[in-house]
Amino acid sequence: MNLLIANDLYVNHVEKYSDMVTRICYLRFNCLADAEDCWQNVFIKLYNSKEMWQKPDEEIRRWLITVTINESRDIHRKLFRRNHFDIDKLVIPYIEKFDWSLLYAVRTLPYKYSEVIYLYHYEGYSIKELVEILKRNENTIKSQLKRGREMLKDVIKDE
To answer: Residues with Cβ < 8 Å from 8, sequence gap 6 or more?
Structure first.
């Protein structure tokens, strides 16, 4: 593959999926720097997986979500005992118009619920697809969606 074409493919994937990866990272971390580290590691892995560049968009998207979730878990494990700054006090730049207030409400939920709600409602994955991506039982996904929605109603009602 021509180097120029390869670079264009990679840049297109970064531009297309950057916001999605950013939001998934943002769900996990209370520190903007940790979320940025996760984002960077995900796209380094994409850069090193050149065979992914020519796959269909849905396959790339699913792969990026899986890598982002796994990377965020790895980073979170490493940083578990480190002090963090409150992300709510930081200014977070973003390019697209997006309802960050609702994402913030989702982010206040425990991670196992916010992760499922985000992927189901924001990224549009079905329950069966979430079973494959998250490697969880279908009934677990369903109950996490139900409980997460109930908690989210309480959070939104309080605001």
So the answer is: none
How far is the C-alpha of 29 from the C-alpha of 31, rounded, in Å? 5
Tokens of 63: 């792969």
pLDDT, tens only, 139-157: 999 999 999 999 988 888 7
- Record the tokens describing residue 80, joined without a space: 């578990």
CA distance 72 to 79: 10
Q: In the numeric block, which tokens belong to residue 117?
A: 């709600």
Domain containing 103: what range? 99-159
Q: Are residues 90 and 110 in the same domain?
A: no
pLDDT of 59 strictly over 90 = yes
Contacts (Cβ under 8 Å, ≥6 apart) of 142: 127
- Specify the residue for token string 């380094």: 44
Burial class (CB in 10 A: 0-12, 13-18, 19+), 140: middle
Give the number of C-alpha atoms closer than 13 A to the C-alpha of residue 60, restricted to the C-beta side: 23
- Rounded to 5°, angle at Cα 21 from 119 and 147: 25
Domain at 27, CATH number: 1.10.1740
